[in-house]
Amino acid sequence: MKRVKVAVKVVIIHLIMFSFYLGSKEAYAEQAGTHSSEIWNATSTDIFGNRALIPHSENDQSANLQYIIEESAKNDKSVFIPNGVYIINADVKLQSGINIVGDTEAPTILKNTTGNNVVLEDENYSDSHNIKIERLFFDGVGIFTRLSHNISIKDNIFYNPVSLFPVNLQTSKGAVLENNIFMRDKNHATPDTENRAIFIGGFATAGRYEYMEDVSIENNLFGVKLNELDAIKSFSNTSVINTINRLQEALETNQMNLEENEQNFLSTGVNSYNNTKNVLIKDNFFYQMYENEDRYGVVGDHAIYLRGSQDVQVIGNHVRGLQNGPYGGFKFKSGRNITIMNNYLRNTGIIMYETPEFGLGDSFAGGTVAELSGWLVANNIFDFKEWQDRYAIGIEYNRHTGVDNVYNGVFMDNHFVNYHNIPQNRRRGLLIQNAQGEGFKGESTFVSGNTRDDRENNQLDVEYWDEEEYQAMPSDWRTLVDSNLYEQFKGSAIPVRNTLPIGKSISVKLGEVIDPYELVDQINDHDEAKPEITILNSEVFEQIGEHKVFLKLVYEDATEVKVTAVVTIQN
Question: Taking a C-beta distance cutoff of 8 angstroms, is the pair 23, 103 a contact?
Answer without folding.
Answer: yes
